[in-house]
Amino acid sequence: MLGSLRFRLPALFLLGIVLSGVVTALIAIRFFQSYAHQRAIDELRAEAPGIVQLEARNAGAATVDTATLVRAIGGDQIFYVPVVRGASLIQNIPTLPLQTIDVRGLERTGALTFDLHWKHKSYLAVAQPVKLGDNLAGALVVAKPTSQLRSRWLTLAEQLGIAFGGGVVVASLLGIYLSRRITRPLLGLSAAADEVAAGNYEVEVPEPRGTDEIAHLSTRFSDMAAKLAESEQLSRNFLMSVSHELRTPLTAIRGHVSALREGVIDDPAAREASLAVIGEEALQLERLVGDVLDLAKLDAHRFTVLQEEVDMQRLCDRAYTSFGEVARRRAIDYRRDFASDAVIVTDGDRVFQIITNLLSNAFRWTPEGGRISLALSSENGSVSVVVSDSGPGIADDEVERIFRPFWSRDGSGTGLGLAIARELATALGGRIDLRSERGLGSTFMLVLPAHAPDAF
User: Fold this and answer.
1) Which of 13, 65, 150, 251 is in the most buried spot, having the most CB atoms within 10 Å?
2) Quick check: pTM over 0.70?
3) CATH superfamily of 308-449
4) Cβ neighbours around 432 below 10 Å, total
5) Do residues 161 and 29 lie in contact, with contact meaning Cβ atoms separated by under 8 Å?
């Protein structure tokens, strides 16, 4: 509990509020103390001259109404310091010792502010010289008890304490609310992550609210779970497809081998035909295994690109010829247009593999009696090989998927041909562009630079 985010968030939030409040209160009290002290000095300095004048006028009287003086100065204490021991200007005002202040020096400097301690009390005092004519008679001291100053900032401290306590309560409630609001979706995401870790990719992710970082995290987590689910499904499809693709030729090979071993096929021509079937099926197995290995190498970035001079017209002609019999058998209008005789530096075998993969994809989706073309051109230091077909076309939402490994539009096949073609094109420093419209066929364009990049 104490180590959970739900506890630590409000605790840290409250701790920050408390520290900020304490520092603010201390600063405020300190400033108020300075202000109250300076204000008291200003008040005493303003009162002292008037009292001195009043005392000087009444100096010849036998008594002075000190109560009137006290009321006139707001309750502050008045003291008298004689210039000579035993001399007293006014009898009813307490007399301070001569050493309290330098009265004669006060005549030169004017008013003096000092701290006074008298009868176990502390005062903030201002002394003002008193003259009778041209003669210095002594000094009047107007003093304010420091307890009055202390009571002022203590009252302020009490008020700040009450406000601070209320603020802490409000901050605590707000911290708890914010903590729960933040941790609730995080706990939901944590539970969803546990489900994903257990292999359940169809987990329901909490619906994000707003556009903050947690909402973004929830959205990205949902996308991740969806992609993991799709990846797992693609893997299953791949295993099923590969199993089927492997089982079919293996079954044919095993059947023909059994027939030859048992002597069922006696005719030499039949035996030769049977051996030819075994060779073709073995070649198909080799291609399938080669595709899987190529994809693994490309994903691991351990694929080596050779550099050699390649006659693109001759290479395209070889790829075109490879599908001539298939086109004839299916009555497909199979054409070629080689408008360039460019020779580039690249890996010829891999370029041939890319083109045959594109042609194989075109023949797979083009119906009998359809149209397929292979074109070659060069421009601005690059070579383009274009494969067009009159197949069903590709929907916009499938344009990117068809290049993913193990994904097949109809659920058959391994889904490796186009994925390997694009990865190989990238390894050769080129790219594959696609233009397609639903119902009107597709056009794949392989663009290669004149010079191959370094090893992949």
Assistant:
1) 13
2) no
3) Histidine kinase-like ATPase, C-terminal domain (3.30.565.10)
4) 21
5) no
- Nearest CA-CA partner of 454 in 336, 264, 306: 306
Q: Can you tell me the distance from the alpha carbon of 374 to that of 332, in angstroms, rounded to the nearest whole number? A: 13
Pairing of strands 308-311, 343-346: antiparallel
Identify the DSSP state of 391.
Answer: S
Contacts of residue 175, defined as CB under 8 A and 6 or more positions apart, other chains included, come to 9, 10, 11, 13, 14, 17
Q: Other CB atoms closer than 10 Å to residue 440's CB: what's the count?
A: 11
* Exposed / middle / buried, residue 446 (Cβ in 10 Å: 0-12, 13-18, 19+): buried
Q: Where in the chain is the domain with CATH 1.10.287.130?
A: 213-299
- Options 3.40.50, 3.10.20, 3.30.450, 1.10.10; CATH of 5-152: 3.30.450
Given a cut of 90, is residue 413 above it in pLDDT?
no
CATH topology of domain 213-299: Helix Hairpins (1.10.287)
How distant, in Å, are the alpha carbons of 327, 337, 387 from that of 333?
7, 13, 13
Q: Which tens digit of pLDDT belongs to each residue from 382-391?
A: 899 999 999 8
Give the tens place of pLDDT for each residue, 179-210. 777 777 777 777 777 877 777 777 777 676 66
Q: Are 394 and 407 in contact (CB under 8 A)?
A: no
Asked if 80 and 141 count as a contact pair (C-beta separation under 8 A), the reply is yes
**Positions of CATH 3.30.565.10 in the chain:** 308-449
- The total of other beta-carbon atoms located within 10 Å of residue 306's CB is 13
Asked if pLDDT for residue 64 goes beyond 50, the answer is no
Which residue type does 62 have? A
- Every domain range in the chain assigned CATH 3.30.450: 5-152
Q: List, for residues 301-355, the tens digit of each pLDDT value.
A: 666 777 889 999 999 999 999 898 889 999 999 999 998 888 999 988 889 989 9
H/E element holding 344? strand 343-346
